[in-house]
Structure formats: C-alpha cells, structure tokens
Prior knowledge:
This protein is an all-beta fold. The protein has one domain: Sandwich (Jelly Rolls). The protein has one helix and ten strands; from the N terminus they run E-H-E-E-E-E-E-E-E-E-E. Strands 1, 2, 3, 5, 8 and 10 form a six-stranded antiparallel β-sheet that branches. The protein has a four-stranded antiparallel β-sheet with strand order 4-9-6-7, with no helix packed on it. A hairpin with a 4-residue loop joins strand 2 and strand 3.
Amino acid sequence: MAVRWIFDAFDSGKVLAANSAELLQLVSSRRGVAAFDDTTAETIYLESTAPSGLTGTITCSATGFMASAESGSIVVQVQVEAFSEGDNSASMVTACSFDTSNSALGGVPASAGVWLTVPQTLTDNDSMAAGDSVRFAITRLVGHASDNATGDWYLKSFLVADGS
C-alpha cells in the first residue's frame, strides 16, 4: 500500500456548503481542525489532482479527535468526484458529480482529545485515475443510528492510499 495524499483539514479544507464544517483554530493547543457538529450533518471538501501511479484498491483514513465525548461512535461518510480531461459527463461549472457515498464507523476513545482514526475502502470512487481532478466530500453522519457520540469531532488529517 502506498500513501498518495495527506491533507491537513484546516489548511486544505474548503467550506462550500450551507452545512459546512467549521475551520477552527484551537487556542489552547494551537491546532487547526475542521470541527463537525454532533447535531447537524456537516461537510468539508478537499481538492487535488490524482497522482501518477494511482492503482489498485483505494483506501482513506480520517484522523482527528473528539472535543468532549468519551464514549459512543461516529459515522464518517466520504464521497469522491473525479474528472478526467475531456470528460463530458458533467459540467464542472454548474454541477456536482459525486459518486455514491462510502461510510465507516469509528469508536470514540475513552478520553477526549485522543486520536480517533476512521479507515475505509473507497469502493465507490468515481473511477478515479491518475491525472484526474479529484474532490473528496467528508461528512459526519450525525443522523445515522450508529453516530451516537455527543460533542464535536475535530478532523485533523485525511490520508488516501492505494494498492501499489
């Protein structure tokens, strides 16, 4: 497995939706995060170009920590939108073209502020290939029955790897 991207959510995150995660600078620890609420499903977008050599099964890991929760679980959804040069399937000016969502469950550590990594396979990845313009939409699915942790989830980094 080869790591292909590592995004810092605060530095790379785009808030492009009505229910966007908040880009927040934690004063006490001087860390930048994307803060996802526990009552409203919020999304952040990460954009890049797919690197050369991208091949095989594509996986991702959303890593962060809970602001206050010390029990329960969170559900993280990841959607992929990929455009190749000459792709006429949708207009990048007027439409979003995300593939079906992928989601995974992450168990909350027994202490707030401790790393929480939610890994998942991007089975639905919009046929992403090297050189594509790629956008990842990351959402905390607070309406999901398994997302029962109270308090904000702070996303710090998002890693994408492949099977090479």
